[in-house]
Structures
1.
Amino acid sequence: MVEPAKSSPLSELRIALPSLPMRLQEVGRFVAANDYDATTRSMRDLAAEAGADPAAFTRLAKAIGYSGWEELRAALTEARRPSQTAPFSGRAKGRRHGPNADVALVIDKLQAEAAGLRRIPAQPIAEAARALHDAKRIWIAGYRSCRSVAELLNYELRLFRPEQVQLVGASGPDDLDLGAFRPGEAVIVVGFLPYTHASVRVAQAVYRTGATLVAIADSLSAPMAEGADHVLLFEAASSPGFFPSLTGAIAIAQSLAAVTFSLGGVAAKKRLESTEARLAAASTYVPEKG
Amino acid sequence: MVEPAKSSPLSELRIALPSLPMRLQEVGRFVAANDYDATTRSMRDLAAEAGADPAAFTRLAKAIGYSGWEELRAALTEARRPSQTAPFSGRAKGRRHGPNADVALVIDKLQAEAAGLRRIPAQPIAEAARALHDAKRIWIAGYRSCRSVAELLNYELRLFRPEQVQLVGASGPDDLDLGAFRPGEAVIVVGFLPYTHASVRVAQAVYRTGATLVAIADSLSAPMAEGADHVLLFEAASSPGFFPSLTGAIAIAQSLAAVTFSLGGVAAKKRLESTEARLAAASTYVPEKG
DNA sequence: CAATCCATGCAACAAATGTTTCATGGTCGA
DNA sequence: TCGACCATGAAACATTTGTTGCATGGATTG
């Protein structure tokens, strides 16, 4: 038999799963679903919880190419090892090539992003959320790669404030919306270096019209951050790679939405529930299986 | 003696550390620094690596108030369990009101997201990137809140592979694209609970057509993950709040793009540079000052 | 200086672990 | 229908696990 290219034990398991005997499939699914317990608890413990025979675990491991459960579990624990102390990162740093160089790159990147998240100031987010809560209407603008952030924010806010949240440029050219800002409304602009002209134009329009400006940016000196009422900073360049990191911006956006929702109290909750009910009625989602 | 408030076993360990015998301090520091290995490997193994006596571990555990090493390890294991709420969210939940409640919510959320990022397995991402690199064409699908992830991925990949990357449903109804998948092409599907019918349909179409399926999902048992060639897992429910977290998915998407780019070598680099040059010529961006 | 205490390594212990073997029951093909 | 085959559970196996008792050696105290 030709040995397939080595990969994550979990995916090995998953691809071999359909061709296995029924009981081993059950056990295999259990392992895949509880892989953390698989690495930490004992075989007999797992067997008891899965309602299966201990021997089934050994057999499963052998069926997918390991010498036994012990070896499978060792592979799982290595695969689950947190990125900060990853097995190869130390060695791989010496030689920047080879099969592990890619893994090292991913590990570095995730590690840097996690560190960047911890440096995001929390207080400004809470304050901005209050501003959003008080706003009669919320506009959201973001261009190019920042558009994903803007759309996410738009999506989540609309879940519980559907009529009052709107993407800039959603229903026509941006310029039409730029004149529609009013005092008492809030405008969120997302952007980082290099800054698009479009986002700067939005910021200037907000300034002119007297609306409240919330900037999500990578620097205090960003064009859309100047004169903003709330500036929420994240680190776009903190991680290796060739694109600015957006994880910080996404985390800010989601925190912002979460706090705004929590400020909304029972009214927001009711709104969210009715939205969810409508989506369920339209059978947008696959029903959960027991 | 008054028992201090129960907290993480690691912090219990740290505060008790200075008052311990020298050898137990060594061992304690070793455990604190390698707590992942402490939960997965055996006491004797750790002793060998730390250059200490196995018994020292039992003694250490007893010295800080546990019945033995086994109980200490169980506590460490529980503390490390993924998908749990942030360590100090318990405290924040106590006082859910007051002016700082919002800030606490944000801090909890960011902290949890950062922890979640570290638990993302790196290896599958590197493998999936290789699959993308080898693919003749790349399709990307994501619906509702996951659309932002899909669009970001689409944006970044198109920076250096413009003709070969495409959003499913970008140029018409989804159904047209579903029949266009071919073997040798790759399709990325992003989704988490609750899963949309649309994303599942895409996954099924991929399966039918023999293309390579890369799933970015929150669970191995997600409908689009079954039968996928690569499954990239993130924790959507790891952070407090009312909405699944997308930071993990974004981080995965960006890592995926970064590695794929790095695999592309000089050709990808040239492509990226020419794209940037075109954007600059169209004066999309505000020129940098200073 | 002597007596004591305590930290520390070693070795033996019982318990629990992963593995293997064997008997059983079911399924498929001739 | 019979035979071969395989999946499956129960029990026995050797190994490894965490623990504890004991001897040693250095530090502390009177």
Note: The two ends of chain A are 38 Å apart (CA to CA).
2.
Amino acid sequence: MSEKGSLICSVNVVDQEKIQKLEQILPDKEMTKKMAEIFKALADPTRLHIVQALLEEELCVCDISAVVNLSISAISHQLRLLRTMHIVKFRKQGKMVYYSLDDDHITLLVQTALEHVQEKTGESVRA
Amino acid sequence: MSEKGSLICSVNVVDQEKIQKLEQILPDKEMTKKMAEIFKALADPTRLHIVQALLEEELCVCDISAVVNLSISAISHQLRLLRTMHIVKFRKQGKMVYYSLDDDHITLLVQTALEHVQEKTGESVRA
DNA sequence: CTTTCATTTGAATACTTGTTCAAATGTAAT
DNA sequence: ATTACATTTGAACAAGTATTCAAATGAAAG
């Protein structure tokens, strides 16, 4: 943000038009920020693990803690994050709290990422 | 990871079977970690912005810096990260270095995230 | 060879984030 | 009320990360 203005390189001067065209097409900064937040929610192994488990079935905090093998407290903290991101929803029943996925898009995102990694890892993709 | 073992809550004891079934179905930890890394690559506004721009066309570092409105140095650092993640590839031509997307899955991920945000923001989704 | 310019790199800094521990809710049972 | 238990919360600490600045490459041109 400093070497701009007078110090614009020749290429930028030439392609100023290209830059402006891109700025028009691209989603605005707010949109990009929100998209980044979705990715960020899935960017932590613990949270992704939680989401993967909830992809299968509804689970209580205790269950999740067992599957992910992390303290109840740590899980609860992460669940709060996923809650505020509208990725999971919850349902109280007695002392227990049951969590499930709130959003359908998440499934597609996780699936796509899985395919990507499988391909890059050289795993056979048929079936 | 501490209140486990002897202190397992009654629910877990009952559903121990459920937990084991989940552990079988779910991708192993290595896979989950790799998936999280893909998401992490897209989890930063700056990097996502770069990727969105490259979705449209091949660009040099200078161009990207102009579009994202951040110092050349900052962009170069992020590009290195995207490079090691195999998300972008580059091509040298004289003094300039041109970057483009290395992976097809990224497009789908970004599109899905965009749709998700648009829905949650209450934007009309037709067309 | 020296200068110029696009890009990269390394160190430093400020900021963010995941986990832990201890304490607080809140619900159900004795 | 008191106890037991599932979950949440807040503070604190360690680890990770994005950006900046200054310096280093490396390629083309004078």
Note: Chain B touches chain A through 64 residues (CB under 8 Å).
